[in-house]
Design goal:
The complex is a heterotrimer of chains A (299), B (228) and C (121).
Chain A lengths: L2 E12 L2 E12 L3 E6 L5 H8 L7 E6 L8 H4 L2 E5 L10 H11 L5 H10 L13 H14 L4 E5 L7 H17 L3 E5 L3 H4 L5 E6 L2 E7 H4 L4 E6 H7 L5 E3 L3 E2 L2 E6 L5 H10 L2 E4 L2 H9 L12
Parallel strand pairs in A: 3-7, 3-8, 5-6, 6-7
Antiparallel strand pairs in A: 1-2, 1-4, 8-9, 10-13, 10-14, 11-13, 12-13
Helix pairs in contact in A: 4-5
Chain B lengths: L2 H11 L1 H25 L6 E2 L4 H24 L4 H32 L2 H5 E2 L11 H55 L2 H10 L2 H7 L1 H16 L4
Parallel strand pairs in B: 1-2
Helix pairs in contact in B: 1-4, 2-3, 3-6, 4-6, 6-8, 6-9
Chain C lengths: L10 H15 L7 E2 L2 H8 L3 H13 L3 E4 L3 E4 L3 H27 L4 H12 L1
Helix pairs in contact in C: 1-3, 2-3
Classes of the chains: A alpha/beta (299), B mainly alpha (228), C mainly alpha (121).
Chain lengths: 299, 228, 121
């Protein structure tokens, strides 16, 4: 499979502030990937560099095997929908979609019309009169109807309720099934999207700490809880990524491993409780305050 | 379709800013003057600088269009080059259109004897002295100067932020002060006025061309490196 | 919309288990057509590639087979294969565990048997 995004040692710094630090990853074509992490971790900066809206301080970045900066062939294949996208305030929804239709070669007008209806957007309403959620819907419609070979959504649904978000997921999956393309999705609603993702990348403080297939992340960590002394005995020699709770003599620890039969047996003997950890929980543990996440090397 | 043409089409959708607002401003200024003309029943010829309003407006539009449209266009995967070309194309087309319209109004003004009340709004002495082509070029070039000056100022802001604008205007101020000081110190003022007086309005407008070229180049260079 | 509840296990395994369950319960009789991966994807709101992985797992085990250009079908004898597999899993997942727990609590094999009989009443 060919690589749609290929990034090597990408760094972006603003003076002393390093927003993105030595990040390398690649995305193969027609995959749905999640770029996850806390706010301000550097996700948006990376996406801006992929689309040549920001310039890297150092490192190499190839999109569809070419550099994206002022590259019409590459940019034509990218649609980047971001939370902070600005629209001309006097344009009405219809104008924005008409402009988008001229700019994206794969634009599907019928699909756009259907989405407009599903998301209940008033065609004639001016951009400056739209609510936050409606504005997000405009972005989502552009992102889906453009059918760009590389579609990037950066927190696309600010102000949208669960029903509208669900609508987005449904349309995304259905349209992706009919028209496979590479999708990069950044969000903090990890639980909602983790099932859609095939590849998961986690950015923490500008660094890439996880780049894994989503399904192999499921069940790749577990939590153990019980008496502090017993927990400490149990975690000897294991990869502990976080010790989130401590209450009196009780504590818990999250371990980066799939619990094996012996682990369960040992936990049983020590009177400890083993629970599974979802992708969202795992990422919270890895990127949370007292995490030792960076020490973890994933195979 | 050429992407630069698409950018022009995008600007065309902003009908209010490009086509309606400037003429509403200009024509309301005109109507007020016309009203005054009727009150004085056309006994005295009226000369007015109301025409300036459309030029001032276009300077502002040159500034605003970049802030409003640049982020939108770049966000939708438009190349900076194409945005620049399309926007410049829009400037040229609109400048030419305005120049033609202004000449038409000037024509009506002269044939109707100043709209029947000796009002000189569109056809002014000195400014409209030259041939038709000269008059057209005068308006055209003046309009382009406004657009691209606004565009350049805005591109400095987009590229370097408030600090950049501050430095730019600071430098301009210093340059201007030095110029006026030198003129006063060496007593060049008479020569300067003499030089200006020697030229027709058209001739002077041609002397702004080097500035126009500077605006065009500088705004291009900055837009190429502007980030979102 | 339907959801897979367990986010701590690979989804492709859960998809495979869902299909197996349907085969056991008779919802998917032998030689019947299985929904396409895209249908699975939109039904469970999951990535089509993941759904395909789950389906392919069952193809590898001879439970499903592919008719070119038409889709996936349940193999003849698939129910037997699934039942056998599930029985083995039942022994590993439940019986062994139960025996361990019973030992811990000092329940003899006899007592255990009695308990099971009681549960059937």
């Amino acid at each position: 499979m060919s690589k749609v995004v290929d990034i090597h040692n990408l760094t972006k710094s603003y003076g002393k502030d390093i927003a993105v630090k030595d990040v390398s990853f690649s995305i193969e074509s027609n995959k749905i990937c999640g770029l996850l992490g806390r706010n301000g971790a550097g996700k948006t900066t990376i996406m801006h560099m992929i689309t040549a809206q920001l310039f890297p301080t150092s490192g190499d970045l190839k999109i569809f095997d070419e550099r994206p900066y002022e590259n019409r062939d590459v940019l034509n294949k990218i649609c980047f929908i971001k939370e902070s996208q600005k629209y001309p305030p006097n344009f009405c929804v219809h104008d924005v979609l008409e402009v988008a239709a001229t700019l994206f070669p794969n634009w599907d007008q019928r699909f756009a019309k259907r989405l407009l209806k599903d998301f209940n957007l008033p065609r004639k309403r001016r951009i400056k009169k739209l609510s936050r959620g409606m504005l997000s819907s405009v972005g989502i419609i552009i992102g889906l109807a453009s059918r760009a070979p590389l579609t990037i959504f950066d927190e696309p649904y600010l102000g949208l309720d669960a029903v509208a978000r669900n609508l987005f997921y449904n349309h995304l999956i259905e349209d992706y099934a009919d028209h496979p393309r590479t999708i990069l999705l950044s969000t903090h609603l990890i639980d909602e999207v983790s099932k859609i993702l095939e590849q998961v990348m986690v950015i923490d403080k500008g660094e890439l700490i996880i780049n894994e297939e989503a399904d192999s992340l499921r069940g790749s960590a577990y939590a153990v809880a019980g008496l502090a002394t017993k927990v400490d005995a149990f975690i000897q020699g294991k990869k502990v990524i976080n010790k989130p709770h401590s209450l009196g003599g009780f504590t818990s620890a999250v371990i980066m491993d799939t619990p094996k039969f012996e682990d369960r047996k040992q936990a049983d003997l020590l009177g400890l409780n083993i629970t599974s950890v979802s992708i969202q929980e795992l990422i919270v543990h890895l990127t949370g305050g007292n995490s030792q996440g960076k020490a973890v090397e994933l195979q | 379709m050429n992407p630069a043409i698409n950018v022009m089409k995008m600007h065309f959708k902003e009908k209010w800013s490009w086509f309606f607002a400037p003429w509403i401003i200009l024509l309301s200024s005109f109507l007020i003057n016309l009203f005054v003309g009727y009150l004085t029943s056309g006994d005295e010829p009226i000369y007015t600088g109301g025409l300036c309003s459309i030029f001032a407006y276009m300077l502002v539009l040159g500034i605003v269009t970049l802030t409003h449209m640049f982020h939108f266009a770049i966000g939708l995967s438009v190349r900076r080059n194409d945005f620049y070309l399309g926007t410049s194309g829009m400037f040229f087309v609109v400048s030419a259109g305005i120049a033609v319209l202004l000449l038409l109004f000037a024509f009506f003004e002269t044939t109707s004897g100043g709209w029947g009340v000796q009002l000189h709004f569109f056809h002014l002495p000195y400014l409209n002295d030259g041939s038709l082509i000269e008059q057209f070029l005068l308006y055209f070039v003046a309009m382009l100067n406004m657009f691209f000056l606004g565009f350049m100022v805005s591109s400095i802001y987009q590229r370097f932020g408030q600090y950049g604008l501050f430095v730019f205007f600071g430098a301009l101020l210093v340059l201007f002060s030095c110029g006026t000081f030198l003129c006063t110190y060496y007593g060049w003022w008479m020569d300067v006025f003499h030089w200006i007086g020697q030229h027709t309005a058209f001739g002077l407008s041609m002397w702004t061309l080097p500035f126009l070229v500077i605006y065009i180049i500088v705004s291009y260079l900055f837009i190429r490196r502007t980030t979102v | 919309m339907n959801t897979l509840t367990d986010d701590s296990r690979p989804i492709f395994l859960q998809i495979a288990e869902q299909i197996e369950d349907d085969i056991i319960k008779g919802g998917l009789p032998e030689e019947s057509q299985v929904p396409s991966t895209n249908q699975f994807a939109s039904f469970y709101q999951i990535n089509p590639a993941t759904a395909a992985k789950g389906v392919n797992l069952l193809v590898d085990q001879g439970i499903l087979y592919k008719k070119r250009g038409i889709g996936m079908f349940v193999t003849k004898g698939a129910r037997e294969i699934v039942m056998k597999k599930r029985r083995e899993q039942f022994y590993e997942q439940y019986v062994i565990k139960m025996k361990q727990e019973a030992e811990k609590l000092g329940i003899t094999a006899e007592e255990l048997k009695e308990m099971i009989m009681k549960g059937e009443e």
